[in-house]
Amino acid sequence: xxxxxxxKGELHGMTVVVDTTGxxxxxxxxxxxxxxxxxxLDVGEHVEGETTKDAYIExxxxxxxxxxxxxxxxxxxxxxxxxKLGEL
Amino acid sequence: MPYDPxxxxxxxxxxxxxxxxxxxxxTDVASFMEAKEGTALLFVNSVCGCAAGAARPGLRTALxxxxxxDRVATVFAGQDVDATAKLRSYFPDIPPSSPSAYLxxxxxxxxxxxxxxxxxxxxxxxxxxxxxxxxxHCE
Lengths: 88, 139
Description:
Strand content of chain B: 15-25%
Number of strands of chain A: 5
Strand order of the largest sheet of chain B: 1-3-2-4-5
Structural class of chain B: alpha/beta
Helix content of chain A: 10-25%
Order of helices and strands of chain A: EEEHEE
Radius of gyration of chain A: 12 Å
Helix content of chain B: 40-55%
Number of strands of chain B: 5
Largest sheet of chain A: 5 strands, antiparallel
Structural class of chain A: mainly beta
Number of helices of chain B: 5
Distance between the termini of chain B: 40 Å
Oligomer: heterodimer
Largest interface: A-B, 18 and 22 residues
Distance between the termini of chain A: 18 Å
Largest sheet of chain B: 5 strands, mixed
C-alpha cells in the first residue's frame, strides 16, 4: 500500500524501528529514507539499560510510543537495522 | 492547524454511513463515555493514507460481523482537536495514535489498535484484526 510521496522512499508514512549500533533504539514515523540516513517524525527514543531494546519494542508494538522528539535524523553510519513496527 | 473541512468531509461521511456517531466536541465525548454499560468502539479517524485508507473500509466490513460493539463513535484527529484530546485523556497510558481504535467494555479498555498495526495493510487484513477482537470481547 503506497502513498503519494514516492520521492520519500517506500517507508514514508510507516512506523519503523530504527536500531542503532549503540545502546539506542528509535521508533517513529518514517518521513524520508536516503543513503545518508533516515528522518523520523514523532519519535520515541530508548536507551538500553534496565529495560532491554526488545522489551521496549514489544511494548511499543502493542500500544505505540510517546514521542520525545518531533523530528529526528539518524545517520546511516549509526543504523544497525530498520524494520516496520507493524510487522514485528 | 486543523485540516480543510472539505478535504475531510468524505472521510467523515465514511464513518457516519457505517453507523458511527461523530463526536466533535469535548462534551460529545464526555457524554458518550459516561454510558459505560456494554461495548463501545471509538475510532480515531485520520487523513493518513498509509493506514486510515484501509482502516475505514476494514472497520466497515468488521461491523457486519455477528459479534460487534454495541456502540460505535468517532473523533477526527487533526480536525476535532479538542474532542480527540478529550478522548485520549480517558486512556492516559496509551500514546496518541491516528488512526487508531479503542474497544471498551463496561467502561474498561479491552483492546487497542495503534496506527502501526494498520499501516500498509489492505482492508480485509484490517477487518480480520477487528473481527478477531469483536469475537473475543463483544456479544
